[in-house]
Write a structure and sequence with these properties.
Elements (H helix, E strand, L loop, with lengths): L1 E6 L5 H8 L5 H7 L8 H8 L10 H21 L3 E3 L2 E5 L6 E2 L3 E3 L4 E8 L4 H6 L5 H14 L3 E8 L3 E8 L2 H19 L11 H10 L14 H34 L4 E4 L2 E4 L10 H7 L1 H7 L12
Parallel strand pairs: 6-7
Antiparallel strand pairs: 1-3, 2-5, 3-4, 5-6, 7-8, 9-10
Amino acid sequence: MTKVLINTKDLTHLEWLEQRQKGIGGSDIAGILGLSPWSSPIKVYQDKIGELPPTKETEVMYWGNVLEDIVAKEFQKRSGMKVRRRNAILQREDYPYMLANVDRLIVSKKEGLECKTTNEFMKSEWIEGEKVPEQYFLQCQWYMAVTGYERWHIAVLIGGNKFHMDVIERDDELIEMMMNEAKNFWENHVIPENPPEFDGSKASDEVLKQLYPESNAELSVQLGNSFIDELETYDQLKDNKKQIDKAIKDIENRIKGKMEDAEVAKAGGRRIMWKTYESNRFDTKTFKKEKPELYKKYVKTSKSRRFSVK
């Protein structure tokens, strides 16, 4: 059912990225489903057809890779289970676009391990939440869909000093849904190179900036009639947002009026803060006036595109 697409032990980072374009991996599925904070259907699509520049390894990615072995060893120590590396991209034979690049497999069991690292600010999502963050939950379910395994473990090192473990049981109903969505995405978008719609995610914003960084003043596009209705909806949503923002501000200011100089207020078990913060900001205007030549030397021009509807 599952075979090795390619051994990854001696692959460079770029070669590994190229192999990932041959199918849908565990880190892609949440983006396809619109449930990832870092990805979206259009971003996964652009990545698979090679339209996005290769992802450069960031400091976060680097340290995540470095600490992966430490997380795996600590999992062994705390769980009593032995793990081993699987230096390969795994592939389902019946659905060749279903790929898995797993962190570890549990020795003598049909179970796997996903290793994560995160910062202290994400602690509540892992320790106080009712389950594993959604994108990682889906990632582990995808690995079970590819391997046929019944259980996946996930271990995370939080802020460099808190260790947390969870167990994720196989959910066949969810896996079936994921496989259907992945099949549709691969066969109806990636293979025919038919891009999915952009959505409102940050990831879609990033793709648009990468694909179309500058406008051409000589070009004009006529949109279809369907966008007339979309623009009416856009206007209504903007009006609603103004009303909602004002209603929120009304409540905030009424509370502030009652708090006066107090830093903390309490109501029905809830805690409200209106705290003084200090920040240092560079006075660009004065610097430009007093040191114009130095300002010109260090000023950096940046370009961006502003969206507006009239």
